[in-house]
TrEMBL record:
PROSITE patterns, alphabetized: JMJC
Entry protein name: Lysine-specific demethylase JMJ32
Domain JmjC: 131-324
Recorded family membership: Belongs to the JARID1 histone demethylase family.
Organism: Raphanus sativus (Radish)
InterPro entries registered for this protein in UniProt: Cupin_8, JmjC_dom, RmlC-like_jellyroll
Signal peptide region: none
Any Pfam family matching the protein: Cupin_8
Top-level taxon: Eukaryota
Length: 352
């Protein structure tokens, strides 16, 4: 496909379907409205007044309530030196620029101890250790089942529209230091914020070439409690993970070089941006790329619960696989490589 054709596609999906801003609804839609106007069109939206009856909205901003209610529960704490787990990271500070796909150090701790580690992250100006509760894999119904009564087990109008119950429900607790890199998930995602705010950058599946997906060796942080140091270790045997290379918010020192390195992202249509506040729900369609940051609420953290519903592997999925299989170059110096997802999986599904 010609370069012009792919670039026209980015523009046309916005003009014909998506517009320039994420839709905001004042109240939950009917199942028919949701299915017709958002799911079938693969179009995100933010729904206000979506969960006013949840006890969690009033209770979870108090760390004492959560620590007391979950006092006997072991949970999975994710630790990184910089708040970026499941992200493309330099293998070392003096390695000449080699990169890897880095996952967090994970350890099981009593919830009160894990929550203290998360909250203390925000007080470390040098970001020496950042904790995030982000286990996924249906963690809300396993590790956090003691507080499950504080939320609904599903999003009723979404369940009716999608014709199934959530395959997984996950809980997320972090501070403003935790940032999730661009990625996509093969789920229809209903993402409910309980405390604080979540900030999303969104790109539709048609924009896949703008994210410079490449294959990186998988690595894991290993944290030593005695020395309080992290060591990044490449998995053995070596396994490669396809992941998005672009950081949409590079440091001032890196901004000029990043713009030259990734012109399709920085010079193309702007990503959709939306802030989801406590009490609101984001519908994030399957295979949409998303980057997530957060602002803590009254408890000193941000809390969200998300519901993953199975996506339909229909013609939309076939179209996307065809599009991402096309090699495309923005210039002779900046190739966008095609890849085959069946050669490896996108492990380490990140935020949402």
């Amino acid at each position: 496909m010609a370069k012009k054709g792919i670039e026209n596609l980015w523009r046309e999906v916005r003009e014909l379907s998506l517009g320039t801003e994420t839709d905001r609804l004042d109240s939950p839609p009917s199942p028919l409205h949701f299915l017709r106007d958002y799911v079938s069109q693969s179009k995100p939206c933010v729904i206000s007044n979506a969960i006013p009856h949840w006890p969690a909205l009033n209770l979870w901003s108090d760390p004492a309530y959560l620590a007391g209610t979950l006092s006997n529960d072991l949970v999975s704490l994710h630790l990184t030196p910089n708040g970026s787990a499941d992200a493309v990271t330099p293998i070392s500070s003096d390695d000449g620029g080699d990169l890897c796909f880095a996952s967090a150090h994970v350890e099981k701790l009593p919830f009160p101890e894990a929550l203290r580690a998360v909250r203390s992250s925000s007080s470390k100006g040098e970001e020496k250790k950042v904790g995030y509760l982000q286990q996924q894999n249906d963690c809300f119904r396993t590790e956090y089942s003691t507080v499950a009564k504080d939320c609904d087990g599903d999003i009723p109008w979404a369940t009716e529209a999608l014709g199934c119950s959530p395959e997984a429900v996950n809980l997320w607790i972090g501070t403003g230091l935790s940032v999730t890199s661009f990625h996509k998930d093969h789920y229809e995602n209903l993402y409910a914020v309980v405390s604080g705010e979540k900030h999303f950058l969104l790109l539709p599946p048609t924009d896949v070439h703008r994210l410079y997906v490449q294959r990186y060796p998988a690595a894991n942080y290993n944290y030593n409690r005695d020395t309080e140091e992290f060591k990044l270790e490449i998995e053995q045997p070596v396994r490669h993970v396809p992941w998005c290379s672009v950081d949409p918010y590079p440091s001032p020192e890196r901004e000029a070089s990043e713009r030259l390195k990734y012109p399709l992202f920085f010079n193309g249509p702007k990503p959709f941006h939306c802030t989801v506040k406590a009490g609101e729900v984001l519908y994030l369609p399957s295979m949409w790329f998303h980057h997530v940051s957060q602002t803590p609420g009254d408890g000193g953290y941000t809390i969200a619960v998300n519901y993953w519903y199975d996506m339909q592997f229909d013609v939309k999925y076939a179209y996307f696989n065809f599009l991402q299989s096309l090699s495309y170059e923005s210039s002779s110096l900046n190739p966008v490589l095609s890849w085959r997802e069946d050669e490896d999986t996108e492990s380490g599904d990140s935020d949402v």
